[in-house]
Amino acid sequence: MNNVFCFTLAALCTFLLASCASTPPPVATSSYTAVTLERTPCFGRCPVYTVTIYGDGTVRYEGKEHVKVKGSQTRVISPDRVRQLVAEIERAGYFSLNDAYNAYMVTDAPSAITSVTVEGRTKRVNHYLGDRNAPKELLVLENRVDEVAGSADWVGGPQQSTDSKDQAYNKARADGFWEQGKTLYAQNQYAEALEKFRQSLSYWSNQERADYVRQLEAFVAQNRARAKALRDEAYRAQQQGNTRLATTKYRESLKIWPDKQLEEYLDRLERSTDPSRPGAQMPRDERFCGPVDLNVTVPVDFVITFTSGPTHAEWGSRQVKTILAKGQAVSEEIQPPRGGREPSPQEQKPPALKRISQDAIKRVYAQVVACEFFDLKENYWNQQMRDGGVSSLTVTANARTRRVTVYYYDVPRYDSIVSTMREEMEKTQ
After folding, report:
1. pLDDT digits (tens, 9 = 90+) for 301-359
2. Are 301 and 399 spatial neighbours (Cβ–Cβ below 8 Å)?
3. H or E stretch covering 153
4. Among 156, 177, 386, 408, which is least packed by CB within 10 angstroms?
5. Which domains does the chain carry?
6. pTM: predicted TM-score of the whole model, two decimal places
C-alpha cells in the first residue's frame, strides 16, 4: 500500500500545485469579528457604498454615490444577529472560496467586495457581478450582509442588477428551482426540497420565500434529529438482541426521514432473521448511517480515497479513486508486480483526472459525517475467509486521518460512503 500511496501522491502533485487553502474560522462574534461589504461603481447609477458589521453589533456605513444617504452613518443591532450571520458565512464555505470571481460575462456590472475577519483570521473575496460562474452562495451572502446591516435604509432600497435581461434570467432560474422544491416537498423528500429552495434563493429572493426557507430549515433539522434518535434506539435494540424492536424503530425512522439505503438494509435485516432462510450470514456491523445533513461546510483539507483489489498484490491490479475538497477527482489503476518487482511509473497507466462540483463534494462529505466514519473500526476482517478481494477507505478532514479496511464483512456505514463517492464521481460535469 505504501507504493500505491506514493504513486497516487506523485500523480496528484502537478494537478494540485495551483490549489491553496485556509482553515475555516470558528463561529464567534467577539470584538475581533468584522464583516464588510463594499459595492463599486458600474456603467450607470449603481449605488456605491461600504457597510461593516462588528461582533458587538455596531454597524458602520459610508455612502458615496447614487445612494439615499451620503457620508457616514452608525447603528447598533443585536449581537445575536451577527452570530447568525457568521454562522451562515461559515456554513456557506466562505473561507474556501476563491479570492476573486472576475470573468466578464456581462459587461459594465458593478463588483461586490466582501471581507470577513473572525478571531484574527481574514478572508477577502472580489466578486464581479457579471461573472455568472461565481458561486450562488456568494451572492446570497452579499445580500444577507445588506439585509442584516439594514443597508436599504441608507441606500434607498434593495439592490438589483441594472441589466434587465440578467434579472429576467435569474428570476426564471429561481422559479424553476422553486417548483422543483415544491415537487420534492410533496413527495416528503424534505432535505432535497430544501436544497432546491436554497438554490432558488441564490438566484432571486423576496421576504416571503426567505422566511419560508428558514421555517423549512428548522422543520428539517427537527425531523433529522428525531430520525437519528430512532435509529440510535434501533441500534441499541440490536445490540441487546431485540431485532423485532430494532426493525420497528427503523420503520418509524423511515416514516420521518425516507432513506433508500436504510430501506435496503432493513430488508436484509428482516430476511436475515427469517428462520426459513438457511445458511450462515456474513458478519455484520449493525449500525447504520444517520440522516444526511447537506448543510455542512466541507473542510479545506478534506480528502477521501477508496482502494479496492485482491488481497495479494501480485494477483491483479488495484483501483484507486480520490476526491479532494477543491474539486479534483482522480481515478487510477495500479498495476501488479511484474517478475517479482514493483512496476515502474512508466509501466503504469496514467491517472484519469476530472473536476466535480462543490455540491458533489458536499454530498460526499455529508455522507462521511452522517455515517460517523471516524467512529468506525480500522479493520473489519472475516476470519473465515483467506483469499479474494479487499477494500479500504481513507479520509482526511479537520486535520484527522483514518483508514478503514473491509474484507468480506457487511458494514452498511462504509458501503454508504463508498456508494455516494462512486455515484458522484461517475456523474458528468
Report:
1. 999 999 988 876 666 778 899 999 888 899 988 877 766 666 666 666 788 888 888 88
2. yes
3. helix 152-155
4. 386
5. 2-18+297-426 (3.30.1560), 34-162 (3.30.1560.10)
6. 0.52
